[in-house]
Amino acid sequence: MKSEERRQKIKEMLENSTQPLSGKTLADTFGVTRQVIVKDMGIIKAEGMKIIPTARGYLLEKNTDNLKKREIQVCHSKEEIEKELQIIVDLGGNILQTHVNHPIYGTVGESLNIKSRKDIMDFLHKTEETGCMPLLELTKGVHTHLIAAEEETTLDEICTALKKTGFLLSQ
């Protein structure tokens, strides 16, 4: 298979997928190395396709322009990650991104796109599987999320619930 043909098939897979596609899965599918897939993704992005590299794989950026968004700063322990994320998704929110402001490295973050309990479990499983520490451990629990929902009132409800748990620092 020619590289242009492979990239076209990758584009189609991204457009039809609701879950991230891992580099390993794509490499296995096309019988190439993960480095070839990384190069393909760079070319596809340069062609204008909006691809989000996440810890779980590549995801096509969905149009979230019609969603209301809010950046919130929270603080909690590693053991409370699941509880915090569940509060957000159970009330109808989507965690688009997370980042920390590290005193040495500056802003360090990741696109998450967590919108369901399944996404939460996949995220937690990936952190356990890789042994990587969550970003919040770099800043004693303080981190920022960009969250989205269809209604501003939903974002208000999420912030109220996070405030009740003591997680919310600012919005």
Distance between the termini: 50 Å
Q: Portion of residues in helices?
A: 40-55%
Mean pLDDT: 89
* Number of distinct beta strands: 7
**SSE pattern, N- to C-terminal:** HHHEEEHEEHEHE
Radius of gyration: 17 Å
Second-tier CATH architecture of the largest domain: 2-Layer Sandwich
CATH superfamily name of the largest domain? 3H domain
Give the class-level CATH name of the largest domain: Alpha Beta
- Stretches with pLDDT under 50, minimum 5 residues: none
Shape: globular
Characterize the biggest β-sheet.
Answer: 5 strands, antiparallel
Strand content: 25-35%
CATH topology name of the largest domain, in short, is Histidine-containing Protein, Chain: A
Class by alpha and beta content: alpha+beta
Which sequence of strands runs across the widest sheet? 5-4-6-3-7
Number of domains: 2
Counting DSSP H or I runs of 4 or more residues, the number of helices is: 6
Domain 3H: 72-168
Organism: Anaerotignum lactatifermentans
Pfam families: 3H, HTH_11
Domain Helix-turn-helix type: 6-58
Question: What's the gist of this structure?
Answer:
By secondary structure, the chain is α+β, with helices and mostly antiparallel strands.
What is the secondary structure topology, with strand pairs?
Layout: H1 3-16, H2 23-30, H3 34-46, E1 51-54, E2 57-60, E3 68-75, H4 81-90, E4 94-102, E5 106-114, H5 117-130, E6 142-149, H6 152-165, E7 168-170
Antiparallel strand pairs: 1-2, 3-6, 3-7, 4-5, 4-6
Helix pairs in contact: 1-3, 2-3, 4-5
